[in-house]
Write a structure and sequence with these properties.
Largest sheet: 5 strands, parallel
CATH topology of the largest domain: Rossmann fold
Number of domains: 2
CATH superfamily of the largest domain: Response regulator
Number of strands: 11
Strand order of the largest sheet: 2-1-3-4-5
CATH architecture of the largest domain: 3-Layer(aba) Sandwich
CATH class of the largest domain: Alpha Beta
Order of helices and strands: EHEHEHEHEHEEEEHHHEE
Number of helices: 8
Shape: elongated
Low-confidence stretches: none
Strand content: 15-25%
Radius of gyration: 19 Å
């Protein structure tokens, strides 16, 4: 998941960011409401975590403005305000879930995963994007920075899986099962060959590589 945390308390934000990154997710952090609003409106996050009490813009105002701009990204509201009326206000503003401080990180993570699953079911994804790399799942086309990239069917499937899990380390076993439909290791270099071909097509002629090898773990597609 790609997650934006809008939280002004540095201790709380650091705790959340550290835990989410250790769980394999890509995380950005905004320490004030205005910065959070700008990031939430401009970037393709899977889910937003928004504190209610923030400098510059409060959390409910951020949510209302995002919804007013047709941003449908799921929102988990964090707040020390835990009365029923407070939770109702948050949900009416456009929040999708509400978690009261203090909280257990395991519950936060479970709620985020549930929000993303729900969003995927409700709105099937037709386009994927990582930085300037774009994939249209309907037309089966791929481009980077406006330049078309020609992929073979297996390469397309491999890239789709990597893009759907951007920012996360994908293991060889995961690729064998999800891309090749193998539930055993055939002890071949088929993954290495296809990764090499894919890297030559999406990275070779561009300044910033997106497809990275994580030694001893697998591969990750990310913007940095």
């Amino acid at each position: 998941m790609r997650i934006l945390i809008i939280e002004d308390d540095q201790e709380t934000a650091g705790y959340i960011v550290k835990g989410l990154k250790e769980a394999g997710h890509a995380v950005d952090h905004a320490a004030d409401g205005q910065t959070g609003l700008e990031l939430g409106a401009a970037e393709p996050y899977d889910v937003l975590v928004i504190d209610r009490m923030l400098p510059q813009l409060d959390g409910l105002t951020i949510i209302e403005r995002l919804r007013g701009a047709a941003v449908t990204t799921p929102v988990l509201i964090l707040s020390a305000l835990g009365e029923v009326d407070d939770r109702v206000d948050g949900l009416k503003a456009g929040g999708d879930d509400y978690l009261v401080k203090p909280f257990a990180f395991s519950e936060l993570l479970a709620r985020l995963e549930a929000l993303v699953r729900r969003a995927e079911i409700e709105a099937p994804v037709t386009r994927l994007q990582v930085d300037g790399l774009e994939m249209d799942l309907l037309s089966r086309t791929v481009s980077r920075d406006g330049r078309d990239i020609d992929l073979q069917p297996r390469e397309f499937r491999l890239l789709e899986y990597l893009m759907r899990h951007s920012g996360q380390v994908v293991t060889r076993t995961m690729l064998l099962e999800k891309v090749w439909d193998y539930h055993f290791d055939p002890q071949t270099n088929v993954i290495d060959v296809h990764i090499s071909r894919l890297r030559s097509k999406i990275d070779k002629d561009f300044d910033t590589p997106l497809l990275h090898t994580v030694r001893g773990a697998g591969y990750v597609l990310r913007e940095y």
